Amino acid sequence: MTDTPRCRVVQVTMGRFNQFDLARQMQRHGMLERLIVGYPRWKMRGEGLPDEAISCFPYVTLVRSAAVRAGLARAWLKRELTWRAQQAIDRYAARILPDCDVVVAQSGQGLAVGRAARARGIKHVCHRGSCHIRTQRDLMVDEYRKWGLPSFELDARTLAKEEREYHEADLITVPSEFARQTFLDQGLSPEKVRKTPYGVDLRRFAKSGDPDPEAFDVLFVGQLCLRKGVPYLLQAFRQLRHRRKRLRLVGRVTPEVKSMVNRERAHGDIELYGHLPLGKIPQLMSTSHVLVLPSIEEGFAKVQSEAMACGTPVIGSRNSGARDLFTDGREGFVIEPGDPDVLADRMQRLADDPSFRAELARRSQERVTRLNGWDDYGDQVRD
To answer: For residues 336 and 278, what is the distance between their CA atoms, to the nearest angstrom?
Structure first.
């Protein structure tokens, strides 16, 4: 018998996304040839990846990050800097592409490197963490219109580039059934779109406390924006009846929902944490009664599985990847996006029935433990 030849994988990504988790899995299987990334090398320390397998091209990405952090990047400038950063890592990867068998490039960052790969007989996988970009745009245009906000704008160059990547790639990977179905709805072949749900870091996320039995704490973790369904969460929380209810909001508040959040905070039962270091999130999850993520559009929100690992049941929308993670009514609740009344009802059920909530929490922990961390995900990608 002869040994199966090693499949050599090169990954291309401007930022983290879940590509670092994937890279660790490819390294575990002896398949990682190179990770080409838009981060500076010092930010890669502690990621558990061999230094010789990392190529960094951080210059445009650093300019974009600095402008955003300093509050200098208006919408048009942020779009332009994002476009330039994506172009920079794509072209850099195409120039230095080492010998390999497969290139896995983040969507929007793989047109040039994908073409360079295929010219050399290398397979190109488009790694898309969300739904089809055209579906994403249409959902957000409707949402902005619903709330009377200026029209949602997606860079036309980004839309065209991603759709060209979808067409040219040998395979597209997505993390949820919701995301996969949007590609089929847009006319792509089922054989070309592969679902590989994400895992969870069980070393970082584990139960480290208990919720206050006299209170009812609702937790949201993520960017506070229309895309995450924050207005519906605020409406539902207002309907919730509990003498010691509290809504914990963790993440950066975007301009389109800032006035909504400030208006609801006037009632005094909302805590705004802003951005928190990753190390502080497990404790906050463990001491909350439920995590809520009513997203309008998302591929697979890892924060849901992270909360489950901390023993916190989840209420997630159908468009958040929740259906791929747990069963409605058994480990948590899956709801339709954009329905604050149903969301309020599910929160009320948990607030009114502590024993039922405790049972959901127990099942949540058991369910997410069976994911085997990121290993099941890594095995699926390897296969």
So the answer is: 29
DSSP 8-state code for residue 362: H
CA gap 246, 265 in Å, rounded: 10
Using N-to-C axis directions, what is the helix angle for 230-239 and 255-265, rounded to 10°?
10
The secondary structure element, H or E, covering residue 174 is strand 171-174
What would the 3-class secondary structure string for 188-209 be?
Answer: CCHHHEEECCCCCCCCCCCCCC
Which of 316, 318, 313, 349 is CA-nearest to residue 330?
313
How is the chain split among helix, strand and coil, in percent rounded to 5? 45, 15, 35
Q: CB pairs under 8 A, 24+ apart, for 203-206?
A: 203/373, 204/278, 204/279, 204/282, 204/306, 205/281, 205/282, 205/285, 205/306, 205/309, 205/310, 206/282, 206/309, 206/310
Phi, psi dihedral angles at 223 (to 5 degrees): -65, 130
Q: Mind listing the pLDDT tens digit for each residue in 167-177?
A: 999 999 999 99
Summarised one tens digit per residue, pLDDT across range 357-372 is: 999 999 999 999 888 8
- Report the distance separating Cα 62 and Cα 43, nearest Å: 11
The predicted model scores a pTM of 0.92
CA 338 – CA 130 distance, rounded (Å): 18
